[in-house]
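=== Discrete structure encoding ===
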Amino acid sequence: MKRYISTLCMMLAGALLMTSCLKSSDEDTTQYYNDTAVVLFQLATVNRYVQTTSKSGADSIAKKTLSNPVVFTIDQAKHLIYNTDSLPSDCDLQHVLATINSKNAGTVVINYPASDGQDSLLYYSSTDSINFEKLKELRVYSQDGAGYRSYQVTINVHHAVTDKMIWEQKTLADLPTDSQKAIWEEQVSKAGLKQLIGYGTEEGYAFGNDGLLMVSKDLGDTWTADKLDDDASWLPTDNIAFVSWPFAANASTDYQLLVGTSDKNNKACIVWRKIAEYAENSLPSKWVLIPLEDHNQYYLPKMENINLVYFNNQALAIGSDQKIYVSRDQGITWKTSSKYTLPEGLNSSNLSATTDKDGYLWLVDKDTDKVWRGLIIE
């Protein structure tokens, strides 16, 4: 009898142990978090509808994708998401793909206002576009469903037209003055030279009466013939224009362009360039003729009243044909662009152009003294 009771006790103990093990394996040990937040907000795809002009002059609208999405700030204290660098004005904010990440795998929900005034909630998906012009708020729900955090999302855009010249009419009194140019012109006159070409950071240039290109490295007190890599007969003789800007590739260096016309070429301007290095132990700089290759169809056309400026990190040429030519390769090729246009209604072929320290391009109609100031908002 004792043997049977002992056996029964062992069987009951085993059954209880198995029940305990099965119960522990069936228990839900998943931890659900009660806090969450948006920790990442990025625009993945933003379409732009840009006006373009064909070679025939016909206007059309081209769909492009924003190539440099801006950085967004997430203000957790105020529940705000916003960008400080505005998007171009031609961005489509009604069909935007966004990347949104949350803390503790919270569920992101889009809240659009419904026609009856109630909330219209949709689950966020990175593959579904969001209409930010209609968006009421962005919500993120905690895992345990106990609550949510809401955010007001603001996407700032430029109200002005972007990627195109914006012009406003000014007066001669508003025109920026160039005191250094006046000093160099006085020094050139005092030295008996023909005309000032221009000046850079540490050197000034002028044409001598014999047609030689002269350089001064002491603010015009003395002048010597500058070095050329080609025959001086290829120097321009008329419609001279010059521009100099700091060369980004090297410190203490200017990149300089000299253009003009001559009898040497009947269809294109003559273009020279110089990389003027001022650092100690730098090699002597010289002017290099940029050859007009037969296959290069984007040369700078021969014209009168040429102006050269460095604007928006590019060299621009403006002359008598009422077009703006842009060189993105430091003077080798020159192209027109729908991005760079003259003021509407400006029909003069006798212009002067300059820039100022604030990044504006200035034009003066020398026949009427009318003045325009322009800029580009990227």
About this structure: Residues 38 and 102 are 4 Å apart (CA to CA). The chain has two helices and 25 strands. The longest strand covers residues 238-246. Confidence is low (pLDDT under 50) at residues 1-9, 15-25.
